[in-house]
């Protein structure tokens, strides 16, 4: 039967993600609108984003944190264009974004000593194949596949290359081993539910050394430049952004960070996100039609939680028909104002993707389950009648 109780917040999109509980536009009333981001008030607020992020995440004091243009994509591209080419490069690719970074290394940077280590959706590459004599580019959490690396044990402490990590759907929901990472990037609009446009970049002392001693063979666009005359542009890491940020988005980022502190910092955020995954695991264990795309629980994401449909009727369909059936489930739930934007990523296998990041309440996740079963039943029964 059609359920009656609905999630209080139907926003389960994997990006931009749900705003934090209790969020309202009035929370942004102190935004420095109409003011220059280079004025004292603007730089102070930008520096606050950096300082609060560093403190909440436990980033080492000798690491640099900066705000950069173009969200996580801008941050990871900035790192690749600025740092790669000094050594051979290994890229790990098990979903769309990792594959994209590998493609850019090959087709844009035209790296000749490049090794792309791949795995199918739902799986992870053989991490033992990585050479830490080389630079390594990887996503900590594959946003489009629901697969994360299990830990940082596979990253060598005495590595010669740099560990360059796109962690946009991991930071603030998963514990990051900062001593094993040299570059980490993320965007505001993921785990803390911030607004788009700017990203964050973290640099270890080893990454800074590379920046100041190595010059890439290719020209760097202005928005990628972190050095001038062989010296680090230190202002980037003090709130002096390369291009103009939205001060409303900055205020929203501060609001999200303050909320993070109120729920216990990184420990509280991880607990909330892992709790959402646990709830879905308990539902999947009882389901007769849904399963995790990531079958191995050790690599299963607690943020971008991807589900596949295992019912024999569905698996017997042609791929296009599978995609259409999965889309109908997501559309039904959106029409009922129960769940927005939970279809699988366009390049991923047909299925559903439910965001379980820290801003999502577990009570909303559990309220969604009866609706998932109802929507699945509606789609399957409708197909049976049509046949």
What does this structure look like?
- About 35% of the residues lie in helices and about 15% in strands.
- It is α/β, with parallel strands linked by helices and about 375 residues long.
- The chain folds into 2 domains: about 35-260, Type I PLP-dependent aspartate aminotransferase-like (Major domain) (Aspartate Aminotransferase, domain 2, 3-Layer(aba) Sandwich), CATH 3.40.640; about 265-385, Aspartate Aminotransferase, domain 1.
- The strands form 4 sheets. It has a 7-stranded mixed sheet, with helices on both faces. The chain has a 3-stranded antiparallel sheet with strand order 12-13-14. The protein has a two-stranded antiparallel ribbon with strand order 5-6.
- A hairpin with a 2-residue loop joins strand 10 and strand 11 (about 230).
- The radius of gyration is 21 Å and the shape is globular.
- The model has no long low-confidence stretch (mean pLDDT about 95).
């Amino acid at each position: 039967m059609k359920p009656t109780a609905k999630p209080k917040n139907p926003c389960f999109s994997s990006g931009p993600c749900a705003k934090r509980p209790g969020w309202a536009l009035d929370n942004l009333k102190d935004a420095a609108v109409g003011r220059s981001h280079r004025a004292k008030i603007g730089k102070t607020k930008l520096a606050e984003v950096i300082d609060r992020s560093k403190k909440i995440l436990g980033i080492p004091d000798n690491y640099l944190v900066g705000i950069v243009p173009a969200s996580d994509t801008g941050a990871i591209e900035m790192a690749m264009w600025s740092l790669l080419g000094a050594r051979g490069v290994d890229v790990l690719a098990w979903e769309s974004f990792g594959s994209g970074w590998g493609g850019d290394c090959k087709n844009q940077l035209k790296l000749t000593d490049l090794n792309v280590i791949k795995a199918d959706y739902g799986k992870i590459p053989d991490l033992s194949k990585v050479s830490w004599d080389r630079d390594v580019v990887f996503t900590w959490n594959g946003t489009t596949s629901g697969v994360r690396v299990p830990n940082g044990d596979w990253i060598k402490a005495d590595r010669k290359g740099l560990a360059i990590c796109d962690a946009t759907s991991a930071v603030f929901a998963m514990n990051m081993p900062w001593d094993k990472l040299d570059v980490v990037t993320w965007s505001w609009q993921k785990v803390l539910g911030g607004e788009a446009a700017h990203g964050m970049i973290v640099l270890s002392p080893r990454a800074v050394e590379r920046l100041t001693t190595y010059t890439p063979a290719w020209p760097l666009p202005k928005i990628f430049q972190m050095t001038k005359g062989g010296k680090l542009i230190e202002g980037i890491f003090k709130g002096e952004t390369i291009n103009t940020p939205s001060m409303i988005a900055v205020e929203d980022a501060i609001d999200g960070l303050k909320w993070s502190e109120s729920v216990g910092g990184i420990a509280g955020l991880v607990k909330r996100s892992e709790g959402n995954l646990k709830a879905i695991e308990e539902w999947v264990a009882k389901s007769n039609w849904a399963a995790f795309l990531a079958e191995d629980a050790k690599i299963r994401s607690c943020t971008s939680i991807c589900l596949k449909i295992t019912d024999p009727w569905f698996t017997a369909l042609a791929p296009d028909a599978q995609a259409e059936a999965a889309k109908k489930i997501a559309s039904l739930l959106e029409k009922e104002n129960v769940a927005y934007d939970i279809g699988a990523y366009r390049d991923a296998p047909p299925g559903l993707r439910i965001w379980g990041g820290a801003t999502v309440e577990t009570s909303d996740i559990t309220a969604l389950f009866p609706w998932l079963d109802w929507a699945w039943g509606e789609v399957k029964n409708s197909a049976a009648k049509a046949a």
